[in-house]
Amino acid sequence: MFKTDVQKLRNALEFTRIYKENANDIYLREAACMDFQLRHILVPMDENDGIAGRYEHDFVGFSSQVGGIYTYYFNEHEFLNAYMACKQNGEITAAEDYALQAVQAYWHEENTAQG
Q: Do residues 115 and 74 touch, judged by C-beta distance below 8 A?
C-alpha cells in the first residue's frame, strides 16, 4: 500500500511545519522530524517480505545516518511533478496550493542534500 502523491504532498506540509516549529533546538527538531517521518514512511509488511522495515520516502525528510552523514533532503523534481498533477486534477485546496508553493521555495534553499 503506497501513498498517493497528494498524501506525500500533505506529508511535506506537515514535516515542514514540524521542522520550522522546532528550529530553535536542532536536537528536538531532529527528534520531532524523525518521529513524524517514521510514522509515515514505513510500509506495512507483505507476506512476501523477507524482512520488516521497508519504507517509502516522502518528498522531504531527514536521513540520520545515510553514509555516515546527517542530512535533510528535498526531492524537488518529484515534488513539483506531483504538485502540478494534483493541482491540475483539483486534488489540493487553494490553501494547500499556496502552502505547497511556500514549501517548495523553503526547501529549495534549506535542504542539505540535493535531490
A: yes
Between the CA of residue 101 and those of 38, 68, 73, 105, what are the distances in Å? Answer: 25, 32, 17, 6
- Report the predicted TM-score, pTM, of the whole model to 2 decimal places: 0.86
Question: Which residue is listed with cell 546527517?
Answer: 70
- Nearest 5°: the CA angle 19, 23, 28 is 80
Query: How far is the C-alpha of 13 from the C-alpha of 77, rounded, in Å?
Result: 16
Which amino acid belongs to residue 90?
A: G
In angstroms, rounded to a whole number, what is the distance separating the alpha carbons of residues 97 and 94? 5
How far is residue 51 CA from its own chain's centroid?
Answer: 24
Give me the chain's average pLDDT, please: 87
Distance, in Å, from the CA atom of 32 to the CA atom of 47, rounded to the nearest integer, reads: 31
